C-alpha cells in the first residue's frame, strides 16, 4: 500500500500538523487512509484517544469535510467518528492536504453527535460566503450520520 503524507493546514495555507498513513482505497473524488494516532494518550469527550489507535480517514475533493473512524488499539472496537469541517481536500501523488476550518463534529459509537470548536470558528473571521460553506458541510455530515450507517 502506498504511503501518503497528510498535511493539515490553516487558512494561510501553512502546515500545522503532518503525519503519514497508508492508502487503503482511492476513487475519483476521495481517498481513504489508515494512520495510527501519534500523540500520547489523552481524554477526549467520553473516550481516551490512545497512542497507536487506528484511524481510518476519508478525505474528499468534492465535500467540505473529512471523516475519521477511530478504532481502539487494544481491542479494535470502534470508538466513534471525528469529522473536520474543511475546504475540499487536495489529493496528489504521495500526499493529501486540507485546510481546516475549525468546526468539528464528534459522533460517538452509539450515534450521539456533538459539534465542537464553535468558538474557534468565530476566531477565524470568515466572510459570510465561507461561513455558509462551513455550515453546509456540517449539515451534510449530520444528515449523513442520520440517514445511513456511518462508514466502517
Using only CA atoms, what is the Rg? 15 Å
What is the count of DSSP helices, taking H or I runs of 4+ residues? 2
Spatial separation of the terminal alpha carbons: 19 Å
Report helical residue fraction. Answer: 10-25%
Mean pLDDT: 94
Strand runs, count = 11
The domain tally reads: 1
Indicate the CATH class: Mainly Beta
Q: Spell the H/E element sequence.
A: EEEEEEEEEEEHH
What would the CATH topology be?
FomD barrel-like fold
Low-confidence segments, ≥5 residues, pLDDT <50? none
Itemize the secondary structure elements and their pairings.
Layout: E1 3-9, E2 15-26, E3 30-36, E4 42-44, E5 47-49, E6 54-60, E7 65-71, E8 78-86, E9 90-92, E10 95-108, E11 113-116, H1 118-124, H2 128-147
Parallel strand pairs: 1-10
Antiparallel strand pairs: 1-2, 2-3, 3-6, 4-5, 6-7, 7-8, 8-10, 9-10, 10-11
Protein model, in words:
- By secondary structure, the chain is of the alpha+beta class.
- It has one domain (3-147): FomD-like (FomD barrel-like fold, Beta Barrel).
- The chain has two helices and eleven strands; from the N terminus they run βββββββββββαα.
- It has helices at residues 118-124, 128-147, and strands at 3-9, 15-26, 30-36, 42-44, 47-49, 54-60, 65-71, 78-86, 90-92, 95-108, 113-116.
- The strands form two sheets. The protein has a seven-stranded mixed barrel with strand order 1-2-3-6-7-8-10. A two-stranded antiparallel ribbon has the order 4-5.
- The mean pLDDT is 94.
Amino acid at each position: 500500500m502506498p504511503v501518503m503524507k497528510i498535511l493539515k493546514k490553516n487558512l494561510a495555507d501553512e502546515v500545522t500538523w503532518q503525519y503519514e498513513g497508508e492508502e487503503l482505497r482511492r476513487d475519483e473524488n476521495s481517498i481513504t487512509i489508515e494512520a495510527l494516532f501519534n500523540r500520547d494518550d489523552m481524554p477526549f469527550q467520553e473516550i481516551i484517544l490512545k497512542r497507536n489507535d487506528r484511524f481510518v480517514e476519508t478525505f474528499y475533493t468534492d465535500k467540505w469535510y473529512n471523516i475519521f473512524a477511530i478504532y481502539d488499539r487494544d481491542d479494535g472496537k470502534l470508538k466513534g467518528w471525528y469529522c473536520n469541517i474543511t475546504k475540499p481536500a487536495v489529493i496528489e501523488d504521495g500526499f493529501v492536504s486540507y485546510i481546516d476550518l475549525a468546526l468539528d463534529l464528534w459522533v460517538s459509537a452509539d450515534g450521539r453527535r456533538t459539534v465542537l470548536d464553535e468558538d474557534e470558528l468565530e476566531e477565524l473571521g470568515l466572510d459570510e460566503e465561507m461561513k455558509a460553506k462551513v455550515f453546509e458541510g456540517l449539515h451534510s455530515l449530520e444528515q449523513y450520520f442520520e440517514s445511513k450507517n456511518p462508514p466502517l
